[in-house]
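dumping the sequnces here before i forget
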Amino acid sequence: MRYTTVRARCGALPKRAAQNPYVRVFALLLLTVVAILVVLMGVWCNGGCSCNENQEEVEAVPDRTWVDARISGSMLPGARFPGDGTYNNIRGHFSGENPGHLTLIYTPPQGIANLSFAGRQPDEQRADGSYVWNNVPVEPGEFGGWTTSAITAQYNVPYLAEGQTQMAVVSTLTVVHPDGQQSTSEYVEQVRPTSGGSDAALPASQPQADAARNPAVRAEDYYLWKVSTWSSIFGVAMTTETCQQWVDLLQQGKIFVGMRYPLLNATPPYTDSYKLPVAFTGQYSPTLELIDYSSGPPTSVLTISMTYKPAYHTFLSNALPWEDDERWFALGADDSQPITCPEGLNLDRGDWEVMARLWLDFGGAEGDCANCTLPVYYCYQGEEWPAFAGAASGLLNLSSTAYEGWGITCIGPHLLRLGNGMTVPKFGIYETTNQTVSPTEQITLHHRVVNHGTETVTLTLGVTSTLGADWSLYTDSGQPLTQPIVLTTKLGYFFRVCGTIPADAHGPHTVYVTATSATPPNPSVQATDLLWVGDWESPPPPTTWYRTRFPVVMIQ
Amino acid sequence: MCPVLHIGPLSVSTYWVIYGLAILIGGMLVFHRFVRAGISPQSATWGVLLIVWSGLAGAFLFKGLVFLIQNLILTGELRWEGGSAFMGALAGAVIALIVFFRRQGISLGRGFDLWIVPIPLGQAIGRLGCLAAGCCYGAPTDSWLGMYLPGNGEWAVRYPTQLMSSVANLLIFYTLVAVERYGSRRGRESWPFPGFIFLLYVSLYTLKRFTIEFFRGSSPPPLLCPLNVTHLLAAAGFLASVGLIVWNGVRRRTLHVRRL
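..and the predicted 3d for all of it:
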């Protein structure tokens, strides 16, 4: 009987509640909400609200760089015979209003002889081998704009070393506008043995019209590629003293980054001078920043401006591979002003990172060089590492394959892929690491894959390496990773790559981590971890080739 | 941030859960106000559901159309992108309400005043969903307002535009309630004229949106100098609502003088 009463009460309650209009409205609204969740979560716009969700890696530049640096060669550009005399005509150009004057900085090729200038003598020769002309007056240019009078640099190209089949000689010109804007171009000539003389058939260089070099792109339509990379030295603390030692080392100019880029819209035989792609315009200038993660939001502790290092262009163009329609440039720390690290700096291991940021300018059109893959090498010039850097040499990627004859070692390539939200996968792998490791050591590389798009993606992660080791993937909590992984929009997924370094491994190695979408056409992205296995090896000393002239004594 | 809630085997977007919560709380308050104003519970139920459904439809249609127009202007392409926008929800709900109030025999001004008060409260809750999802994020900043927040996957110290919006919406809600109570104390059902509270809401909301748009890092690209399409729509809404307030105020004063 008691049981029946309870049942009656239980049955009566929902009935009464259903008659309550508030309960009824609440139930209907709840149903609506659940329906929204079911429909939208499964089908479309998961997590979206009124946001612009396109990943824009290109950015508009409000103030267009109109400065242009031009180098042209002699009538048979592109090839010289060893020891030949040749020349470069160098000019600065500006497409805007009359700047009054421009500053020119010319870096001649390495290894040349008998350098002399005609037209105007340099005001200064810098320690890095470059020559500076300050306040060079401009005159109306042939194709519009304002141009400096040509200055001619004459020299003899180097002789080839024994066994060397050819050599690229690279000259570089930077033109600086009075307001600080600047542009840099490089000019490459090939030196080949006399017997290989097919170069005479090369067509002469045609001067480029201004319109072609400065496409009529409105300032608000100008696009740059923003490149940001983060690096840290695994397990190393950063104090004021350590920071200063690194800064001094960077400012000595012995550490540089080499990057290969394609010549867009250039035509064979690629004998013109070509503008280097790094932007140097106000905030769009390359920098290295030391980021502090120790307390609260990341803060920038120190900023170092970067600049081209033309002295290394000849090395890069000779020691590292490139095709006819590609060029190299080197970037390093600006040494014009001494930099002091902040007092009291004491960042524990893992609490800091170095962020490198630069903007690449491939002509300003949206999508130019989209999907280009640019190989990046990290290089160090010198025989021995400073004592403080010691074991860290490998960690900062500053040691690796030694290039005999140059006294320089480089590690790489670190592949940099350019892509915007329209043309490449809307997901990326982040937090790449650089470590010094020992043979037989078990290592863990931490990564994060992020979905930037507006749709859920299904990804398969993969790992390969130059080590030949077996690699395993784990979740961030240490569980074996189950493939594929599904990422809703804007979601970041942390994972680990674990492996054991083979006992016989030594030197520089690269671990490639890929994420491939399950949706055709199966776009994929790649990140690289750079490893140095074992102890540091100093590179062989640089070799210099001398042209020796023996006196001939005529005895009668 | 907590973009996804894991409930057992289910993974639910935090954004949509909070969005749902905003609909529930806002909907219940609207229903309560309708019933208190003398609309039958049956009609009030349908009214609330009509508002929610048409608001949702408007939110998605509006967002899609904005992107469509923007893409057409900027790239010359006709491309549809998903998403939802509050301005669209407002427009959708207003159209449905016009039909509803006409059928109920309630003046539009009075009806809109009844309906609008809970809306900024719902918005204040909804913006917390944006904060959880990391969308509608602010531009990077060095100011003391900055919070370490994600934006399109990139963490940085940014203006917390989601929280700024949420707080501003709460302030708007309290302002509307205060104005309504002031009118009630004066013994007037609709003070100073029917529709004033609705127009006051539109002017305050569009002003808030116009201002916060400058701090957002997820805004559409500029169309007119530094102003983007949202700025322009907000400015138009603000001018129209303020214009209607002034016009109604002047008209009412003129009628009052004539009667005297």
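The mean pLDDT of chain A is 73.
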